[in-house]
Amino acid sequence: MSMYNMLFRVHPSAPLALALLELPRQELGRFRDAWIDMGPDGLRIQILTRNGGYSEYASVFEELRKHPDYVKDWVEDYDPTYSSIEFSLPDTEEIIKRARRLNLVENEDEEKDAREYLTQCATHTMPPFQERWEKVLDQLKSAP
Fold this sequence. Notes:
Layout: H1 3-8, H2 14-21, E1 31-39, E2 42-49, H3 60-64, E3 70-75, E4 83-88, H4 92-101, H5 108-121, H6 129-141
């Protein structure tokens, strides 16, 4: 387990995020986390990897840039060994259709739960990478 995942764990929406993108975790190089949240243009999926810097995994981005939902990728300024990829998500109805096609939603109760979850995601924005690290480091410094 990586240091990142020991401190932050994997976001609860990571499996759903990767499934909606139809991206197996092993195709992401040094995957660390993924989540669904609200971006400036609507719901989005962000994936955090340890593929930054001069990593041998940098070629992963060449393939991900071909994905139809790809928006952008960047190396994290705070720690350039990390990099992030952003993907757009369609509106809720299209997400539900995609989830049905992928057998992620199989009945009306699951569809209702998915809609409620997406509503929660739409009210949440994940703090920037640097902010999350600094918060944990501050907590560690103040620990007895």
